[in-house]
Specification:
This protein is mainly alpha-helical. Helix content is 61%, strand content 7%. The protein contains 16 helices and five strands. The strands form two sheets. The protein has a three-stranded antiparallel beta sheet with strand order 1-3-2. A two-stranded antiparallel sheet has the order 4-5. Helix 2 crosses helix 3, helix 6 packs antiparallel against helix 8 and helix 8 packs across helix 11. The protein is flat and about 115 Å long. The chain starts with 12 loop residues before the first helix and ends with a strand.
Length: 449
């Protein structure tokens, strides 16, 4: 169904073609705030009229429509707004059969439009890390009721959370692109500094920073994938039946949609998520590089302007017509020799005079020398050095419980992994973990280059 089949004609006229579109948008927002803060779904028409009149007067707005006379009264302008909103389908007027008092009710389309304008002016920023946690908790702690209707309580909300996270990250990527474009037009060091301060305060990447810091998708991804595969293997037919009953569709279409939801969720968690995060990271790095380049450009531009002024003054001083009377009336120039801060040289601090000092000493015995040499040798010996880790993977080609058996074994494993590339080994890690009571480590395999 086309969207214009469900909205009245002229629904967008007030906000599109009218010369007062800004005022009408503000009036619609004012009505929405009254409606949102009220317990009743009906609002007295007089209250709406008064609130619109106050809004128009406070913002010094005078509505002027083509073919209409200027209205001096604020209530008259407010009544015009109400009539236009009724004609456009934003609100409806109702009259009480007993008291004959009029009330205002916002239509479903009017509420949707007001909420859309509110989101545009004040976009909400979700907490990205919550999406993954919600998916994990939903699949891990399943109730009997959820298992009976896995489509409505498990698959559908999981798919919607993954889709919402993908959409939110894409919006963040787009917003960073706009911020970069704004950075390119910063004309002064002050405005550029304010832009950078907003970045440092985390105005547009705070939620992204928390998502990266927690890295919860890497912790939960394997479990989520296993649960999705279990749903496909054990509950696929039940999920299809739930979808057919919920959406009133044929079995073949339901099977295709369920498979698509499972596959798209897995693909996002394993492929699309990493690609989007890498793109955001690159844009943040681009933002920082542009900020540095813009700062240098503005600073050099200031130096260039200073040099141009000095050069112009120097040419004026050297002009042969400087003694002309008309010229002297325009400029009052004196030739001065000066020293600026850039030509000054800050001398180094004079080095302090050192004095000879004498201390008493005594000769060590042979036994003491041997003990001191052994002690120094022991302190210099590093059991986790690169040379000693060369043959580690010959004995332990992959992760095992023995590598977590003790603190020394764990340190040897970490040292060998750190020096693996330099010692000629390739390390491949997985999303699964091995752990014991004290330590936890990702599974890995080592292969000779």
């Amino acid at each position: 169904m086309n969207v214009f089949d469900s909205i009245p004609d002229g629904f967008f006229n007030c906000l599109a073609s009218s010369s007062n579109h800004r005022a009408y948008a503000g009036c619609l927002k004012s009505i929405y705030e009254q409606y949102n803060n009220s317990v009743s779904f009906k609002l007295p028409r007089t209250d709406i009229r008064d609130s619109l009149s106050i809004y128009l007067l406070q913002n010094h707005i005078e509505l002027k429509e083509d073919g209409s006379e200027d209205l001096e009264s604020g209530n008259d302008q407010a009544n015009i707004v109400i009539r236009k909103f009724v004609a456009s389908g934003y609100i409806e007027e109702e009259t009480d059969d007993t008291t004959f008092e009029k009330s205002i009710v916002m239509t479903e389309n009017g509420l949707a439009l007001a909420e859309f304008l509110e989101k545009l002016s004040k976009p909400s920023r979700p907490e990205y890390s919550n999406f993954i946690v919600n998916i994990f908790n939903r699949l891990k702690y399943q109730t009997n009721e959820q298992r009976k209707e896995p489509y409505n309580f498990l698959l559908k909300p999981t798919f919607e959370d993954a889709k919402a996270l993908s959409s939110s990250l894409k919006k963040l990527s787009t917003s960073i692109k706009k911020i970069i474009e704004t950075m390119l037009h910063e004309g002064t060091l002050v405005s550029l500094t304010e832009n950078i301060i907003k970045y440092c305060d985390g105005d547009f990447i705070r939620e992204y920073s928390r998502l990266v810091k927690q890295q919860n998708i890497h912790l939960y991804r394997s479990f989520i994938t296993q649960e999705l595969e279990r749903l496909r293997a054990e509950s696929f037919e039940l999920i299809v039946q739930n979808l057919m009953a919920e959406e009133k569709i044929e079995q073949l279409e339901a099977e295709e949609r369920v498979s698509e939801m499972l596959d798209s969720t897995k693909n996002f968690l394993h492929d699309d998520y990493n690609r989007i995060m890498e793109e955001i990271k690159q844009k943040i790095n681009t933002y920082i590089r542009i900020a540095i380049a813009r700062e240098r450009m503005l600073r050099n531009k200031g130096f260039d302007l200073k040099g141009c002024v000095e050069q112009a003054v120097r040419l004026l001083i050297q002009n042969d017509d400087i003694n002309d009377e008309d010229f002297q009336n325009l400029f009052s120039i004196q030739k001065n020799e000066f020293v600026d801060t850039s030509s000054l040289y800050a001398p180094r601090r004079a080095s302090s005079i050192t004095q000879n000092t004498e201390t008493e000493y005594y000769e060590l015995s042979d036994e003491t020398k041997e003990k001191q040499a052994a002690l120094l040798q022991k302190e210099a010996d590093n059991p986790f050095s690169k040379d000693k880790m060369k043959d580690f993977f010959e004995s332990f080609p992959e992760s095992s419980a023995e590598s977590l058996g003790s603190k020394d074994n764990l340190l040897s494993t970490l040292a060998a992994l750190a020096y693996a590339k330099e010692n000629g080994w390739d390390i491949t890690s997985s999303d699964e973990y091995i752990q014991n009571e004290n330590f936890k480590m990702k599974k890995w395999e080592a292969a000779k280059k």
